[in-house]
Amino acid sequence: MVEFDAYGPEKILQVYNPKVGMRGFVVLDNLSLGPAKGGIRMTPTVSVDEVAKLARTMTWKSAMANLPFGGGKSGIIADPRQFSLEKKKEIVEAFSRALKVVSPNYYIAAPDINTGEQEMEWFAKANGSKKACTGKPKKMGGIPHELGSTGFGVAHAAFVALKHRKKDVRKISFAVEGFGNVGTFAAKFLTEAGATLKAVSDSKGCIYIEKGMNYEKLMKVKEETGSVINYNGQKNTCVNIVKSPVDVLITAAVPDVIKIGDVDNVKAKLIVEGSNIPMTEQVEGLLHKKGILVVPDFVANAGGVISSYVEYTGGSAQKMFKMVKEKVCKNTDLVLTQVEKRRILPREAALEIARKRVLAKCDICDV
Fold first, then answer.
1. Residue 285 sits in which domain range?
2. Are residues 222 and 321 in the same domain?
3. Do 253 and 120 fall within a single domain?
4. pTM higher than 0.85 for the full model?
5. pLDDT one-digit tens code per residue, 229-259
6. What residues are labeled active site?
7. Which of 92, 140, 204, 233 falls between 20 and 30 A from 326, CA-CA?
Protein backbone atom coordinates (compact mmCIF):
# COMPACT_ATOMS: atom_id res chain seq x y z
CA MET A 1 0.00 0.00 0.00
CA VAL A 2 1.31 3.45 -0.93
CA GLU A 3 2.44 5.43 2.09
CA PHE A 4 1.45 9.10 2.08
CA ASP A 5 3.41 11.50 4.27
CA ALA A 6 4.36 15.14 4.59
CA TYR A 7 6.18 15.13 1.23
CA GLY A 8 3.74 13.23 -0.99
CA PRO A 9 3.07 11.55 -3.31
CA GLU A 10 1.24 14.47 -4.88
CA LYS A 11 -0.37 12.64 -7.80
CA ILE A 12 -0.91 9.05 -8.88
CA LEU A 13 -2.36 8.48 -12.34
CA GLN A 14 -3.42 5.03 -13.55
CA VAL A 15 -3.99 4.51 -17.28
CA TYR A 16 -5.49 1.69 -19.32
CA ASN A 17 -6.04 0.97 -23.00
CA PRO A 18 -7.86 -2.38 -23.42
CA LYS A 19 -7.61 -2.27 -27.22
CA VAL A 20 -3.83 -2.16 -27.14
CA GLY A 21 -3.46 -4.13 -23.91
CA MET A 22 -1.65 -1.30 -22.15
CA ARG A 23 -2.00 -0.87 -18.40
CA GLY A 24 0.26 1.41 -16.42
CA PHE A 25 0.65 4.22 -13.93
CA VAL A 26 2.80 7.18 -13.01
CA VAL A 27 3.57 8.47 -9.53
CA LEU A 28 4.49 12.14 -9.11
CA ASP A 29 5.97 12.13 -5.64
CA ASN A 30 6.96 15.76 -5.09
CA LEU A 31 7.03 18.66 -7.54
CA SER A 32 8.50 21.36 -5.28
CA LEU A 33 11.79 21.64 -7.16
CA GLY A 34 10.41 21.09 -10.66
CA PRO A 35 8.73 18.49 -12.90
CA ALA A 36 8.99 14.92 -11.63
CA LYS A 37 11.88 12.96 -13.11
CA GLY A 38 12.00 9.19 -13.27
CA GLY A 39 12.15 6.20 -15.56
CA ILE A 40 9.56 3.87 -17.08
CA ARG A 41 9.76 0.36 -15.64
CA MET A 42 8.21 -2.37 -17.80
CA THR A 43 7.76 -5.71 -16.03
CA PRO A 44 4.85 -8.10 -15.52
CA THR A 45 4.98 -7.56 -11.74
CA VAL A 46 5.53 -3.81 -11.46
CA SER A 47 3.11 -2.24 -8.98
CA VAL A 48 2.02 1.17 -7.81
CA ASP A 49 3.64 0.46 -4.44
CA GLU A 50 6.98 -0.36 -6.07
CA VAL A 51 6.83 2.70 -8.31
CA ALA A 52 5.85 4.99 -5.40
CA LYS A 53 8.93 3.92 -3.42
CA LEU A 54 11.16 4.51 -6.44
CA ALA A 55 9.53 7.90 -7.05
CA ARG A 56 10.40 8.92 -3.48
CA THR A 57 13.99 7.88 -4.07
CA MET A 58 13.98 10.13 -7.15
CA THR A 59 12.72 13.05 -5.03
CA TRP A 60 15.73 12.70 -2.74
CA LYS A 61 18.11 11.95 -5.61
CA SER A 62 17.18 15.07 -7.58
CA ALA A 63 17.28 17.22 -4.43
CA MET A 64 20.62 15.73 -3.37
CA ALA A 65 22.02 16.48 -6.82
CA ASN A 66 20.65 20.03 -6.51
CA LEU A 67 18.67 19.76 -9.75
CA PRO A 68 15.42 21.58 -10.66
CA PHE A 69 13.55 18.26 -10.80
CA GLY A 70 11.02 16.62 -8.54
CA GLY A 71 10.70 12.89 -8.03
CA GLY A 72 8.61 10.57 -10.15
CA LYS A 73 8.48 7.11 -11.65
CA SER A 74 6.16 5.15 -13.92
CA GLY A 75 5.37 1.55 -14.70
CA ILE A 76 3.87 -0.50 -17.52
CA ILE A 77 2.54 -3.92 -16.52
CA ALA A 78 3.86 -6.09 -19.35
CA ASP A 79 6.45 -8.75 -20.10
CA PRO A 80 8.25 -7.69 -23.31
CA ARG A 81 9.65 -11.21 -23.69
CA GLN A 82 6.13 -12.40 -24.48
CA PHE A 83 5.45 -10.22 -27.53
CA SER A 84 7.05 -8.69 -30.62
CA LEU A 85 8.99 -5.44 -30.88
CA GLU A 86 6.09 -3.99 -32.86
CA LYS A 87 3.73 -4.80 -30.01
CA LYS A 88 6.08 -3.24 -27.49
CA LYS A 89 6.18 -0.08 -29.60
CA GLU A 90 2.39 0.02 -29.68
CA ILE A 91 2.19 -0.31 -25.89
CA VAL A 92 4.83 2.38 -25.22
CA GLU A 93 3.13 4.77 -27.64
CA ALA A 94 -0.27 4.18 -26.02
CA PHE A 95 1.29 4.79 -22.61
CA SER A 96 2.87 8.02 -23.84
CA ARG A 97 -0.38 9.34 -25.27
CA ALA A 98 -2.20 8.49 -22.04
CA LEU A 99 0.37 10.46 -20.04
CA LYS A 100 0.05 13.64 -22.09
CA VAL A 101 -2.04 15.13 -19.31
CA VAL A 102 1.07 15.22 -17.12
CA SER A 103 4.00 14.90 -19.53
CA PRO A 104 6.12 16.90 -20.18
CA ASN A 105 4.75 19.65 -17.89
CA TYR A 106 4.75 17.57 -14.69
CA TYR A 107 6.55 14.35 -15.60
CA ILE A 108 9.71 13.68 -17.62
CA ALA A 109 10.28 10.01 -18.40
CA ALA A 110 13.55 8.11 -18.78
CA PRO A 111 14.82 4.54 -19.34
CA ASP A 112 14.49 1.89 -16.65
CA ILE A 113 14.03 -1.89 -16.63
CA ASN A 114 13.17 -3.10 -20.16
CA THR A 115 13.16 0.43 -21.61
CA GLY A 116 16.06 2.17 -23.33
CA GLU A 117 16.78 4.79 -25.95
CA GLN A 118 14.55 3.12 -28.57
CA GLU A 119 11.56 3.22 -26.19
CA MET A 120 12.34 6.86 -25.36
CA GLU A 121 12.24 7.70 -29.06
CA TRP A 122 8.80 6.08 -29.32
CA PHE A 123 7.64 7.85 -26.17
CA ALA A 124 8.81 11.30 -27.30
CA LYS A 125 7.31 11.00 -30.78
CA ALA A 126 3.96 9.76 -29.47
CA ASN A 127 3.91 12.57 -26.93
CA GLY A 128 4.82 15.20 -29.52
CA SER A 129 7.61 16.76 -27.45
CA LYS A 130 11.29 15.90 -27.05
CA LYS A 131 11.02 17.34 -23.53
CA ALA A 132 8.74 14.45 -22.53
CA CYS A 133 11.71 12.17 -21.80
CA THR A 134 15.48 11.89 -21.61
CA GLY A 135 17.77 9.03 -22.54
CA LYS A 136 16.76 9.45 -26.18
CA PRO A 137 18.97 8.42 -29.12
CA LYS A 138 21.77 10.79 -30.09
CA LYS A 139 19.96 11.63 -33.36
CA MET A 140 17.18 13.19 -31.26
CA GLY A 141 19.60 15.24 -29.16
CA GLY A 142 19.77 12.60 -26.45
CA ILE A 143 22.55 11.54 -24.14
CA PRO A 144 21.95 7.78 -23.89
CA HIS A 145 22.44 6.15 -20.49
CA GLU A 146 24.61 3.64 -22.35
CA LEU A 147 27.43 6.22 -22.12
CA GLY A 148 27.78 5.16 -18.51
CA SER A 149 26.85 8.29 -16.57
CA THR A 150 25.60 6.38 -13.53
CA GLY A 151 28.61 4.06 -13.28
CA PHE A 152 30.92 7.04 -13.79
CA GLY A 153 29.29 8.77 -10.82
CA VAL A 154 29.43 5.63 -8.68
CA ALA A 155 33.17 5.37 -9.28
CA HIS A 156 33.67 8.99 -8.24
CA ALA A 157 31.58 8.48 -5.11
CA ALA A 158 33.97 5.62 -4.30
CA PHE A 159 37.01 7.85 -4.91
CA VAL A 160 35.69 10.46 -2.44
CA ALA A 161 34.80 7.82 0.18
CA LEU A 162 38.26 6.25 -0.11
CA LYS A 163 39.82 9.67 0.40
CA HIS A 164 37.75 10.11 3.57
CA ARG A 165 39.01 6.73 4.75
CA LYS A 166 42.57 7.75 3.82
CA LYS A 167 42.89 4.84 1.37
CA ASP A 168 44.90 4.87 -1.84
CA VAL A 169 42.69 3.68 -4.72
CA ARG A 170 45.74 2.02 -6.31
CA LYS A 171 46.07 -0.26 -3.29
CA ILE A 172 42.47 -1.42 -2.84
CA SER A 173 40.52 -4.36 -4.20
CA PHE A 174 36.85 -4.29 -5.11
CA ALA A 175 33.86 -6.41 -6.13
CA VAL A 176 30.97 -5.50 -8.42
CA GLU A 177 27.51 -7.00 -7.91
CA GLY A 178 25.83 -6.86 -11.32
CA PHE A 179 27.91 -6.43 -14.46
CA GLY A 180 25.34 -4.40 -16.40
CA ASN A 181 25.32 -0.76 -17.49
CA VAL A 182 26.14 0.60 -14.04
CA GLY A 183 28.51 -2.15 -12.92
CA THR A 184 30.59 -2.28 -16.11
CA PHE A 185 31.32 1.44 -16.07
CA ALA A 186 31.98 1.57 -12.33
CA ALA A 187 34.48 -1.27 -12.85
CA LYS A 188 36.02 0.49 -15.85
CA PHE A 189 36.73 3.76 -14.06
CA LEU A 190 37.92 2.11 -10.85
CA THR A 191 40.35 -0.20 -12.67
CA GLU A 192 41.61 2.72 -14.76
CA ALA A 193 42.38 4.50 -11.49
CA GLY A 194 44.46 1.53 -10.37
CA ALA A 195 42.04 -0.48 -8.20
CA THR A 196 42.04 -4.29 -8.48
CA LEU A 197 38.80 -5.99 -9.52
CA LYS A 198 38.72 -9.36 -7.72
CA ALA A 199 35.04 -10.38 -7.85
CA VAL A 200 32.12 -9.75 -10.16
CA SER A 201 28.67 -11.21 -10.68
CA ASP A 202 25.83 -11.24 -13.18
CA SER A 203 22.57 -13.17 -13.41
CA LYS A 204 24.47 -16.43 -14.12
CA GLY A 205 26.72 -16.39 -11.07
CA CYS A 206 29.82 -14.93 -9.43
CA ILE A 207 33.51 -15.17 -10.28
CA TYR A 208 36.42 -14.50 -7.90
CA ILE A 209 40.10 -14.19 -8.78
CA GLU A 210 42.53 -13.34 -5.98
CA LYS A 211 45.12 -11.72 -8.24
CA GLY A 212 42.51 -9.61 -10.00
CA MET A 213 40.93 -9.46 -13.45
CA ASN A 214 41.75 -7.64 -16.64
CA TYR A 215 38.80 -5.37 -17.36
CA GLU A 216 39.09 -5.48 -21.15
CA LYS A 217 39.32 -9.27 -21.15
CA LEU A 218 36.32 -9.49 -18.79
CA MET A 219 34.23 -7.29 -21.09
CA LYS A 220 35.17 -9.46 -24.07
CA VAL A 221 34.19 -12.65 -22.20
CA LYS A 222 30.87 -11.09 -21.20
CA GLU A 223 30.10 -9.95 -24.75
CA GLU A 224 31.15 -13.21 -26.43
CA THR A 225 29.76 -15.77 -23.95
CA GLY A 226 26.96 -13.87 -22.23
CA SER A 227 28.32 -14.18 -18.70
CA VAL A 228 31.28 -13.17 -16.54
CA ILE A 229 31.45 -16.69 -15.06
CA ASN A 230 33.25 -17.83 -18.20
CA TYR A 231 36.30 -15.81 -17.19
CA ASN A 232 38.74 -18.30 -15.69
CA GLY A 233 38.45 -18.24 -11.91
CA GLN A 234 36.65 -19.53 -8.85
CA LYS A 235 32.93 -19.71 -9.65
CA ASN A 236 30.19 -19.29 -7.08
CA THR A 237 26.51 -18.38 -6.78
CA CYS A 238 25.31 -14.80 -7.22
CA VAL A 239 24.47 -14.26 -3.55
CA ASN A 240 28.06 -14.87 -2.45
CA ILE A 241 29.31 -11.71 -4.16
CA VAL A 242 28.49 -9.71 -1.00
CA LYS A 243 30.83 -11.95 1.02
CA SER A 244 33.83 -11.36 -1.23
CA PRO A 245 37.14 -10.69 0.59
CA VAL A 246 37.67 -7.21 -0.87
CA ASP A 247 38.06 -3.64 0.40
CA VAL A 248 35.16 -2.14 -1.55
CA LEU A 249 31.82 -3.57 -2.68
CA ILE A 250 29.85 -1.89 -5.45
CA THR A 251 26.19 -2.91 -5.63
CA ALA A 252 24.87 -2.39 -9.15
CA ALA A 253 21.92 -4.68 -9.78
CA VAL A 254 19.12 -6.14 -7.70
CA PRO A 255 17.35 -4.59 -4.67
CA ASP A 256 17.78 -6.11 -1.20
CA VAL A 257 20.94 -7.97 -2.16
CA ILE A 258 22.47 -7.57 1.32
CA LYS A 259 20.21 -9.04 4.00
CA ILE A 260 20.41 -9.09 7.79
CA GLY A 261 21.85 -12.60 7.67
CA ASP A 262 24.73 -11.37 5.49
CA VAL A 263 25.95 -8.64 7.83
CA ASP A 264 28.46 -10.80 9.74
CA ASN A 265 29.89 -12.13 6.46
CA VAL A 266 30.48 -8.80 4.72
CA LYS A 267 34.23 -8.26 4.53
CA ALA A 268 34.35 -5.00 2.55
CA LYS A 269 34.94 -1.87 4.64
CA LEU A 270 33.27 0.39 2.09
CA ILE A 271 30.01 -0.23 0.20
CA VAL A 272 28.93 2.14 -2.57
CA GLU A 273 25.29 1.72 -3.55
CA GLY A 274 25.22 1.91 -7.33
CA SER A 275 21.83 0.16 -7.34
CA ASN A 276 18.62 1.42 -5.77
CA ILE A 277 17.65 0.01 -2.37
CA PRO A 278 20.33 -2.74 -2.23
CA MET A 279 19.58 -3.16 1.48
CA THR A 280 17.20 -1.90 4.14
CA GLU A 281 18.00 0.99 6.45
CA GLN A 282 18.19 -1.54 9.26
CA VAL A 283 20.96 -3.42 7.47
CA GLU A 284 22.80 -0.17 6.77
CA GLY A 285 22.65 0.58 10.49
CA LEU A 286 24.07 -2.82 11.42
CA LEU A 287 26.90 -2.44 8.93
CA HIS A 288 27.62 1.04 10.31
CA LYS A 289 28.02 -0.46 13.79
CA LYS A 290 30.61 -2.84 12.31
CA GLY A 291 32.58 0.14 11.02
CA ILE A 292 31.56 -0.40 7.40
CA LEU A 293 30.93 2.85 5.51
CA VAL A 294 27.91 2.80 3.18
CA VAL A 295 27.45 5.56 0.58
CA PRO A 296 23.65 5.75 0.03
CA ASP A 297 22.10 5.00 -3.35
CA PHE A 298 20.59 8.43 -4.03
CA VAL A 299 23.98 10.04 -3.42
CA ALA A 300 26.21 7.57 -5.28
CA ASN A 301 24.05 6.72 -8.30
CA ALA A 302 22.79 10.20 -9.16
CA GLY A 303 24.80 10.23 -12.40
CA GLY A 304 21.78 9.11 -14.42
CA VAL A 305 19.50 11.94 -13.32
CA ILE A 306 22.32 14.47 -13.71
CA SER A 307 22.83 13.20 -17.26
CA SER A 308 19.10 13.58 -17.81
CA TYR A 309 19.25 17.22 -16.72
CA VAL A 310 22.11 17.96 -19.12
CA GLU A 311 20.15 16.37 -21.98
CA TYR A 312 16.96 18.21 -20.93
CA THR A 313 18.81 21.54 -21.14
CA GLY A 314 20.47 20.72 -24.48
CA GLY A 315 23.96 20.02 -23.15
CA SER A 316 26.64 17.73 -24.55
CA ALA A 317 28.07 14.42 -23.37
CA GLN A 318 31.26 16.27 -22.40
CA LYS A 319 29.27 18.65 -20.20
CA MET A 320 27.43 15.68 -18.72
CA PHE A 321 30.59 13.92 -17.53
CA LYS A 322 31.90 17.19 -16.07
CA MET A 323 28.67 17.86 -14.16
CA VAL A 324 28.33 14.28 -12.90
CA LYS A 325 31.85 14.37 -11.49
CA GLU A 326 31.38 17.78 -9.87
CA LYS A 327 28.00 17.07 -8.29
CA VAL A 328 28.59 13.51 -7.13
CA CYS A 329 31.97 14.36 -5.63
CA LYS A 330 30.67 17.49 -3.91
CA ASN A 331 27.61 15.79 -2.43
CA THR A 332 29.44 12.63 -1.35
CA ASP A 333 32.00 14.78 0.43
CA LEU A 334 29.23 16.87 2.02
CA VAL A 335 27.47 13.77 3.36
CA LEU A 336 30.60 12.03 4.65
CA THR A 337 31.84 15.21 6.32
CA GLN A 338 28.58 15.33 8.29
CA VAL A 339 28.94 11.64 9.14
CA GLU A 340 32.39 12.19 10.58
CA LYS A 341 31.51 15.43 12.33
CA ARG A 342 28.26 14.27 13.95
CA ARG A 343 28.77 10.49 14.03
CA ILE A 344 25.47 9.78 12.28
CA LEU A 345 24.50 7.31 9.57
CA PRO A 346 25.34 8.35 6.00
CA ARG A 347 21.69 7.94 4.95
CA GLU A 348 20.58 10.12 7.84
CA ALA A 349 23.00 12.85 6.80
CA ALA A 350 21.99 12.62 3.12
CA LEU A 351 18.24 12.64 3.84
CA GLU A 352 18.63 15.67 6.07
CA ILE A 353 20.33 17.59 3.25
CA ALA A 354 17.81 16.46 0.61
CA ARG A 355 14.79 17.23 2.80
CA LYS A 356 16.03 20.73 3.56
CA ARG A 357 16.39 21.41 -0.16
CA VAL A 358 12.86 20.19 -0.86
CA LEU A 359 11.33 22.04 2.09
CA ALA A 360 12.96 25.28 1.03
CA LYS A 361 10.62 25.40 -1.99
CA CYS A 362 7.72 23.23 -0.85
CA ASP A 363 4.33 24.88 -0.45
CA ILE A 364 2.39 21.65 0.23
CA CYS A 365 4.69 19.94 2.73
CA ASP A 366 3.26 19.59 6.21
CA VAL A 367 6.44 19.29 8.26
1. 149-351
2. yes
3. no
4. yes
5. 999 877 777 778 999 999 999 999 988 999 9
6. 73
7. 140
